[in-house]
Amino acid sequence: MDTPTEKLILGFKANKSNVEIHQHAAYQIVFTEDNPFQTTINNIQYDGIFGFIIKPKIAHSCICNQSILTVINVEPFSHLGKYLASKLGKNDTFILESKQDLLFFFCIKQGNISIQEILNSISVENEVKPIDDRILKSIFYIQENFKTEKFSILELAQFVCLSPSRLGSLFKQQIGSSITKYLLWTRLRNAIFLILSNADKSITEIAVESGFYDSAQMNKYMYQMFGIAPSKLRQKSDLIQFLEIKHN
SS3 of 22, please? Predict the structure, then answer.
């Protein structure tokens, strides 16, 4: 079976772009190359740090009045996502107390901190546990049908010949996120892409095209997951981009 496409959402946050408490269904890498900033992760405050790496569904916020942050959201099933899971182990987060800590985490001997350097450090030889074919089929199914407003987990379970409870347990075990959370992440990712690439489309049109009932529902989840409203995201469209990678 083909490997699903890995999509990274890269966000470069400008000065005075504080983000309130939120969580999402992705691994997140956050770092700065200029001034340290403050973050709160799972109700613990960290001052004067240069970044962090966290697992999905970890509540966090940032105060970065004097910093420009690079933010990478990584899908859990992706090669990089599985690599992050293996590196973090039982820890929910890895705090970057210095700029060099990011190089240390990714075993980069020297050079500038950059997205490409991070990706280059992830070798295909890294040992990551293979994903069950039924979970891969589930991911493909979600990617093909997430726009359907009344998405059915029962139909998904029948598609991969598992009971809903067994599928839910196996999906959570291998992906690190529930099916509903992963579905929501997929819908939000599509909405973000449309917001950034289709200036003529209204927020309401984008919400419906992404599988939400209306813009209010999308606004609610986007704020919860990314700490920013769709309208604000569109205002910062020049600071955010997508990177798509497909591993063989």
Answer: strand
Measure Cα distances from 215 to 68, 149, 183 in Å. 29, 13, 17
Joined tokens for residue 213: 């009932």
* DSSP run (H or E) holding 70: strand 69-74
Phi first, then psi: give them for residue 63, nearest 5 degrees.
-120, 110
Domains present along the chain, CATH in parentheses: 6-121 (2.60.120), 133-235 (1.10.10.60)
Task: Provide the edge-to-edge strand list for the sheet that holds 44-49.
Answer: 19-22, 60-63, 37-41, 44-49
Q: What is the pLDDT of residues 43-62, one digit of tens each?
A: 999 999 999 999 988 988 88
Q: 11 forms bridges with which residues in the sheet?
A: 71, 240
